[in-house]
Design a protein that fits this description.
The protein has one domain: Peptide deformylase (Peptide Deformylase, Alpha-Beta Complex). Helix content is about 15%, strand content about 35%. The protein has 3 helices and 8 strands; from the N terminus they run αββββαβββαβ. It has a 5-stranded antiparallel sheet with strand order 4-3-8-7-6. The chain has a 3-stranded antiparallel sheet with strand order 1-2-5. It is globular.
């Protein structure tokens, strides 16, 4: 189901996402609906806040991007971004690495507005392995959003989900 995307000015867009403690059918359905919404809007990422839910949930699909090649590692192994997408990140923890670069970006909550944004060239997103397992069997059909409401933990507690070089 395609969900309405909130526009700039809505206070929930600034709300810190609540940690998801259990991945149930509601969360699975929300993730699937977010992916469908993101694709329908021709986006590459969507945070739960953008569809009115203050949760630590983000969906990404960088497979259509041709002008900014990316590399991807899942569980420490090289993966093809074209076939590994979409990604669902629950309670994502973002770690920025490398140099920074300017690139033109847009946002689904700021329709028809783009700008040069400085971003790290390498990003690591981490997610609890139990959460990943709870999602993977159900959602097989399905940098910036992930940073909304993230929680930073010591490195030794962070199980690797993906490492992306943009």
């Amino acid at each position: 189901m395609i969900l309405p995307i909130l526009q700039y000015g809505d206070p929930i867009l600034r709300a810190k996402g609540k940690r998801i403690e259990q991945i149930d059918d509601r969360i699975r359905e929300l993730a699937v609906n977010m992916i469908e919404t993101m694709h329908a809007a021709h986006g590459v990422g969507l945070a739960a806040q953008q569809i009115g839910e203050a949760l630590q949930l983000t969906v990404l699909d960088i497979s259509p991007i041709e002008d900014r090649p990316s590399t991807l590692k899942l569980d420490g192994k090289d993966a093809d971004p074209k076939t590994a997408m979409p990604l669902v990140l629950i309670n994502p923890e973002v770690e920025l690495h490398g140099e920074t670069e300017l690139g033109v970006e847009g946002c689904l909550s700021f329709p028809e507005i783009t700008g040069d944004i400085e971003r790290a060239t390498s990003v690591i997103d981490r997610m609890n392995s139990a959460a990943k397992a709870a999602l993977s069997s159900h959602l097989r059909r399905m940098q910036k959003e992930a940073r909304r409401g993230r929680r930073i933990r010591p490195q030794e507690e962070r199980p690797l989900v993906s490492e992306t070089t943009l």
